[in-house]
């Protein structure tokens, strides 16, 4: 069973920060999941919400700030005083660190702007420049991004569609949009589909699995990977 650290070591550190990724990597995880959005001046940064209010000391829409402006905010002290000074990382900062390890990068593209290509293309190019495209999985709820990537012959990136509910014809759908994997919110309903999908050979990654009982259930049902806020507990179970 693969263990993927959701936004880093989210239970113990401020999500989507370098502190969180470094902390997650002290456990034998297989990969790191993070969220990517673009600043007003087109810099890809690692951040979950559309607004910066919950996880920084600032306020407003992430997209309304330039990269330089965003770096003024503190992304650690909301979680605990000892993390004061953490910044919103640029994707490049994470790639710089990733090239020194062997982890898989699960990059979720958050709600993209209408003309996402002009931002997505240089971002993928950047990952490629760092030599990381072969161990990057691009996932998103915005499936036109995946279709675009497939059409534009971005073959060297793995692509996964994200879904909150199981699709009855999940495999057929994955084939239609040329996705390599299904990333799904874990639920009782989703569990009914895991064995069928596993049989077809498509990787199935379930989020967000934080309870041991659920993790063991996923394993029994042949889920490929769990995406968790608690890499410490989950790696102790499976590694
Ligand atoms: O990768 C799955 C998961 O991260 C999707 O939901 O809201 O945690 O980004 P969210
Ligand atoms: Ca995510």
Question: What descriptors fit this protein?
Answer:
single chain, 239 residues, alpha/beta, TIM Barrel, eight-stranded parallel beta barrel, 19% strand, globular, binds SN-glycerol-3-phosphate, binds calcium ion
Describe this structure in words.
By secondary structure, this protein is an alpha/beta fold. The chain has a single domain, classed as TIM Barrel, CATH 3.20.20. It is built from 10 helices and 9 strands. It has an 8-stranded parallel beta barrel with strand order 1-2-4-5-6-7-8-9, surrounded by 4 helices. Helix 1 links the parallel strand 1 (2-6) and strand 2 (31-38). It is globular. The mean pLDDT is 97. Bound molecules: SN-glycerol-3-phosphate (G3P) and calcium ion (CA). Calcium ion binds at residues 33, 35, 108.
Bound ligands: SN-glycerol-3-phosphate, calcium ion
Order of helices and strands: EHEEHHEHEHEHEHHEHEH
Report the C-alpha radius of gyration, rounded: 17 Å
Counting helices, strands and paired strands, the structural category is: alpha/beta
| CATH fold description | TIM Barrel
Secondary-structure arrangement, i.e. CATH architecture = Alpha-Beta Barrel
Largest sheet: 8 strands, parallel, barrel
What is the tally of helical segments?
10
Instruction: Give me the CATH superfamily.
Output: Phosphatidylinositol (PI) phosphodiesterase
End-to-end separation in angstroms reads 8 Å
DSSP summary, beta strand count: 9
Helix and strand arrangement:
Elements: E1 2-6, H1 18-24, E2 31-38, E3 44-46, H2 67-70, H3 91-98, E4 104-109, H4 117-129, E5 136-140, H5 143-151, E6 158-163, H6 170-176, E7 181-185, H7 188-191, H8 194-200, E8 204-207, H9 212-220, E9 225-228, H10 231-238
Parallel strand pairs: 1-2, 1-9, 2-4, 4-5, 5-6, 6-7, 7-8, 8-9
Antiparallel strand pairs: 2-3
The chain binds SN-glycerol-3-phosphate and calcium ion (CA).
């Amino acid at each position: 069973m693969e263990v993927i650290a959701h936004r880093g070591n989210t239970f113990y550190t401020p999500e989507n920060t370098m502190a969180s990724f470094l902390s997650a990597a002290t456990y034998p995880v297989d990969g790191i999941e993070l969220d990517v959005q673009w600043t007003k001046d087109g810099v890809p940064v690692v951040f979950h919400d559309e607004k910066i209010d919950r996880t920084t000391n600032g306020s407003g829409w992430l997209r309304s700030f330039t990269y330089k402006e965003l770096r003024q905010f503190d992304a650690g002290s909301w979680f605990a005083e000892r993390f004061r000074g953490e910044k919103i990382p640029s994707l490049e900062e994470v790639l710089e660190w990733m090239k020194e390890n062997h982890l898989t990068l699960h990059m979720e593209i958050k709600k993209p702007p209408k003309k996402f290509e002009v931002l997505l293309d240089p971002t993928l190019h950047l990952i490629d420049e760092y030599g990381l495209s072969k161990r990057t999985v691009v996932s998103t709820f915005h499936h036109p991004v995946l279709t675009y990537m497939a059409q534009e012959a971005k073959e060297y990136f793995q692509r996964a569609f994200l879904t909150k509910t199981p699709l009855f014809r999940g495999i057929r759908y994955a084939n239609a949009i040329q996705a390599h994997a299904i990333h799904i919110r874990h639920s009782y309903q989703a569990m009914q589909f895991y064995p069928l999908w596993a049989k077809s050979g498509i990787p199935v990654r379930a989020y967000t699995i934080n309870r041991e009982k659920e993790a063991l259930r996923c394993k029994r049902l042949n889920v490929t990977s769990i995406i968790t806020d608690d890499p410490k507990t989950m790696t102790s179970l499976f590694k």
